[in-house]
Amino acid sequence: MSEKQYVIFKLNDEEYGVEISNVKEITSYEEGVKVPDAPDFVDGIINLRGDVVPIINLKKRFKLDTDGIDENSRVIISDINEKLVGFAVDDASRVLTMKDDDVESPPEVILSNNKRFITGIGKFNDEIIIILDFREVLSEEEKQQIQRMQTSLEQSK
Questions:
Q1: CA-CA distance, 16 to 6, in Å (whole number)?
Q2: Where in this chain does the record put each CheW-like domain (predicted)?
Q3: Domain extents for the chain?
Q4: What is the pTM of this model?
Q5: CATH node for 3-155
Q6: Where are the beta strands (DSSP E) in the chain?
Q7: CA distance 20 to 40
Q8: Which helix (H) or strand (E) holds 71?
């Protein structure tokens, strides 16, 4: 039986996970530069060692209550279509190793609502952890829009 490691993070009081192989790094949240006409869920862009990185606010993207940023807020950096993208979360506190048997497929009712980014439901002790795939959080159109924004900003450097 195989197992995988997941970075566990919080949005409001709920715990979510993403496979550690999809995580490049985790940084403290920093206020990004606002970009005109960017989608509402893009908090801004940051310069991460020379790379222009858009920050996607997952709470805004998922239409959850947004209660602001605090000292525990983090940005999980991931590679989406060979471009770095940051995902703002309330906290990224631990790494869990879960056996494949501990992660179930999402219920059909979730999948039927075009929630392709939910890849599983993890059960760890008494906890339920929603497993996400960051590569599927954005629609193809949104990915292209963000890539155009990144390319434009990189060319203007």
A1: 9
A2: 3-143
A3: 3-155
A4: 0.90
A5: 2.40.50.180
A6: 3-11, 14-19, 25-28, 42-48, 51-57, 74-80, 83-89, 91-99, 103-104, 118-124, 127-132
A7: 27
A8: none
